[in-house]
Design a protein that fits this description.
By secondary structure, the protein is α+β, with helices and mostly antiparallel strands. It contains 6 helices and 9 strands, in the order ααααααβββββββββ. The strands form 2 sheets. Strands 1-2-3-9-4-7 form a 6-stranded antiparallel beta sheet, with no helix packed on it.
């Protein structure tokens, strides 16, 4: 499958982010004239016509007025936008990076404000030999899941320790203190997921 470029993605979003066809379809189904809708919405008949033909992008108050007159749910008008926004791609050369002393966090999943309690953040973590993470030392709300890609690790969780090797995975409630230590003689690489997102980066 060919990678969709950023420009192509934005172009596709602009093409589909139109309200006109839906507004016209609902108006015609309700057998209302442009003039009637315009009068009830408090705008000009010409403006409604241009919106229906996607010639102009309506101001939010105009859009709300039209939706109210036509009894259209806003979710219906914005569903294409939401579907496009559901897929978020972070290219390998566009990852944001955070350093915690010598530990490196590369962002592979970026949290969204709209996701609320279901938000996630994910990182590729690189820990040098003999070093460890510190950010979970006091614990936080939510859950975490980790997958060891290379090296060996020790998860310290409250007063317990868990030895992990490449291919091992672990998940736990993040409310208790926890850290990840590299117990090998080469860099430890791991994929880590946190939910809800703590917005570390």
């Amino acid at each position: 499958m060919m990678k969709e470029t950023k420009e192509a993605s934005e172009s596709n979003l602009k093409k589909s982010y139109h309200f006109g066809e839906k507004i016209r379809a609902v108006r015609e189904k309700k057998q209302l004239t442009l003039k009637t809708v315009a009068q009830q919405a408090g705008v000009s008949e010409s403006l409604v016509s241009q919106i229906e033909r996607n010639r102009v992008s309506p101001a939010i108050d105009t859009l709300l007025s039209l939706a109210q007159v036509l009894d259209i749910r806003l979710e219906y008008l914005f569903e294409e936008y939401n579907r496009h926004g559901a897929v978020k791609v972070i290219r390998s050369d566009e990852r944001r990076t955070m350093y915690e002393d010598s530990v490196v966090y590369e962002e592979v999943a970026r949290p969204s404000e709209q996701d609320g309690q279901h938000s996630i953040e994910s990182y590729l973590i690189t820990i040098p030999a003999g070093d460890a993470t510190h950010r979970g030392h006091y614990g936080h709300l939510g859950k975490e899941m980790g997958y060891i890609i290379e090296g060996t690790a020790r998860l310290k969780y409250e007063d317990k320790e868990y030895e992990l090797e490449a291919g091992d995975s672990v998940n736990f409630s993040a409310g208790a203190p926890h850290t990840i230590e590299n117990t090998g003689d080469r860099p430890l690489k791991a994929l880590w997921v946190v939910s809800p997102a703590q917005r570390f980066i």
